[in-house]
Amino acid sequence: MFQGDNAVFHFELDDPSNTFAVVSNGRQGEIQLMNPVDREVKEIYVFQVSAVESRTSQQFRSQPSQVLVRVLDKNDNSPVFQKDSYEFDVPRTALRGFQIGQVIATDQDIGLNGLVSYFLQPVPAWDAFTVDKDSGVLSLDRDLALADVGTHVTTVVASDRTALASEIR
Ligand SMILES: [Ca+2]
Ligand SMILES: [Ca+2]
């Protein structure tokens, strides 16, 4: 169909999402990004590229070749807590290890970029709190005593493994 080594090509790209374009450079076609991409919006793009012989008065078009582009993740989201704040009641007689409640944060990224860890702020207001790094379960670090009766506030930080963090009280 094409006229051997003397054929002059250009490339045409049919991308329904208008995200990619092809720039013809001699016999090569360079696929370029025309609009920003974000894995959380769209991860896979599929489009077709055809080679068109353009020197002759008639145009000859190749069978289209399918191109698949996978967008890799960037750590562009912080963990987000499911609630703005949490309140839990604890019996006065609760002992060390008692599970007070659970805080949950989610992160839209994937892999380590989306894996959430929980920490208490370095100096918690109340020394009886501890939080499980992986589950976000708050529990008692010691037995309670009469002097503990009252309201206690602490801040939990949720961080992904590449250190974008969110805080909650
Ligand atoms: Ca991302
Ligand atoms: Ca993240």
Automatic annotation (TrEMBL):
Its main location: membrane. The keyword Protease does not apply. It comes from the Eukaryota. InterPro entries: Cadherin-domain_protein, Cadherin-like_dom, Cadherin-like_sf, Cadherin_CS. GO terms for biological process: homophilic cell adhesion via plasma membrane adhesion molecules. CDD domains: Cadherin_repeat. Keywords: Calcium, Cell adhesion, Membrane, Repeat, Transmembrane, Transmembrane helix. One of its GO terms (cellular component) is cell-cell junction. This is Protocadherin fat 4-like isoform x5.
